[in-house]
Amino acid sequence: MALRHAVLAALLDGEYSGYQLAKAFDIGVANFWHALPQQLYTELAKLEREGLVAGRQVIQESRPNKRLFRVTDAGQAELERFAADVSKPSFIRDDLLVKVQAADRIGTASVIEQLQERAAAADAKIELLGELLLRLRGDADEEEFLRTGERIGPYLTCLRGLSFEREHRQWCRRIAAVLGERRSSHAER
Amino acid sequence: MALRHAVLAALLDGEYSGYQLAKAFDIGVANFWHALPQQLYTELAKLEREGLVAGRQVIQESRPNKRLFRVTDAGQAELERFAADVSKPSFIRDDLLVKVQAADRIGTASVIEQLQERAAAADAKIELLGELLLRLRGDADEEEFLRTGERIGPYLTCLRGLSFEREHRQWCRRIAAVLGERRSSHAER
DNA sequence: TCTCGATACTCAATTATATGAATAGGCAGA
DNA sequence: TCTGCCTATTCATATAATTGAGTATCGAGA
After folding, report:
1. Which of B 67-126 have CB under 7 A of nucleic chain D?
2. Partner residue opposite B101 with nearest CB, options A80, A105, A157
3. Helix axes B109-137 and A73-84, enclosed angle (nearest 10)
4. Helix segments in A59-152, DSSP class H
5. Chain B hits for A88, Cβ within 8 Å
6. From the alpha carbon of A62, which nucleotide's C1' atom is closest?
7. What does the alpha-carbon distance between residue B9 and residue B52 come to, in Å, rounded to a whole number?
8. What's the pLDDT score for residue B88?
9. Which residues of chain A have pLDDT under 50?
10. Pick from A8, A17, A113: which is nearest to A69 by CA?
11. Strand runs labelled E in chain A
């Protein structure tokens, strides 16, 4: 029930097509919600039926036509309403954590490998987010931008994403090291 | 498809009833997965049908009877198999982040309030996890426990939970401050 | 020229999660 | 004694998310 609001929030920054939204939901926007393209198209169609977003066709020559969407006044009001009611707590849900939970009862080689891959993926994401933050705040420094910038929402969620990725990376590296040392020291499995 | 593995991993530490598991999934275990009681009962029934866990009835006098479950050899093997295949990336999905993304286009009063509630909830969770970690490692210090402890999986996932909650708390407080200052300074809305 | 990736979207089917309501006895506090 | 919470579980329904397949055109590079 919250994807609709994530889409509305993402559309606040301008007009996007389903395809562009899908891209955004794979990088920046993924800091607060994640969704596959199919879901987004479905959700946009629903939102349009309900009058919360409005779409317009854009005819293109050298590539398929597309439909750009923007938030309507009703959509804005819906977001406003949504912001007022209680949020459900946020949970971690992660396959890799499940594997670590079981770590000393199963073979750890593959888990260690996956921890390292995750750390590397986090590296890439951290760099990406760093660039995104820079682009969002322009010349201003962070402090000043947050005080006076006119659109700080996306910046704030990126900050969360960045801190999440940093912590995740650090944890992955540490756990990989811990499990690795245990493997080599008491030569189990 | 991963709840089953989360349940198996949680059951590695002994026998639990559905009810006890549900409790665990509300605190410690929630560091790697979250689920409602109904889901757990359903999952346990499925796992039992497939022979991955075994249940036994325990008759009680002063309260309802219960069924305790343990992981079978087949269950262990299934976990082993699961640990080997690729994990899907972990995503944040959080109502409150959606609200922050929209923050400067909607009224912020309620969002600020929710950020503060979240921070307070994180405080409580942090304390809880701190105690849990202490209980898990006993007298040893962390370094030593991680080197020589015989069951470190749950400890490692708790560490992740702790770091997640700490970062979350810090972010909530900072964002609440930023939004609060903007409200008071340019008296918008 | 042929393949491959990017743009742009749709449809169907399945699986996973969440919501809501019920049952039922014991025990603690007002 | 009445109220409500804790233990312990089940059933049904609804919503959300994932998986898989498919369509069609353009432009770049082998």
Report:
1. 67, 88, 93
2. A157
3. 40
4. 73-84, 95-101, 109-137, 142-148
5. 95
6. D26
7. 12
8. 87
9. 188-189
10. A17
11. 53-58, 66-71
CB-based contact, A4 to chain B, within 8 Å? no
| Nearest neighbour of A80 by CB, restricted to B2, B107, B156 | B107
3-state secondary structure at position A63: coil
If you average pLDDT over residues B92-111, what whole number do you get? 94
A149: exposed, middle or buried (C-beta count within 10 Å: 0-12, 13-18, 19+)? middle
The 10s digit of each residue's pLDDT in A58-99 is: 898 888 899 999 999 999 999 999 999 999 888 888 999 999
Tokens 């994403």 correspond to A161
Residue type, A11: L
Which chain B residues are Cβ-neighbours of A73 within 8 angstroms? none
What is the pLDDT, as a whole number, of residue B2? Answer: 87
Span B17-40, average pLDDT: 86
Identify which of B56, B45, B58, B64 has the alpha carbon closest to the alpha carbon of residue B7.
B45
Q: What is the pLDDT of residue A189?
A: 43
Rounded to two decimals, what is the model's pTM?
A: 0.93
The pair of structure tokens assigned to A44 is 């946009």
Q: Under a CB-based contact definition with an 8 Å cutoff, are residues B44 and B21 in contact?
A: yes
Q: Are A25 and A33 in contact (CB under 8 A)?
A: yes
Q: Which residue is nearest to nucleotide C15 (CA to C1')?
A: B1
Q: Is the CB of A34 under 7 A from strand D?
A: yes
Query: Apex CA B101: angle with CA A144 and CA B128, to 5°?
Result: 95
Q: How far is the CA of A37 from the C1' of D25 (A)?
A: 20
Count of CB atoms situated within 10 Å of the CB of B117: 15
- Whether the CB of B43 is less than 7 Å away from nucleic strand D comes out as no
**For the segment 47-66 of chain A, residues whose CB is within 7 A of strand D:** 62-64
Q: What is the per-residue pLDDT for B189?
A: 42
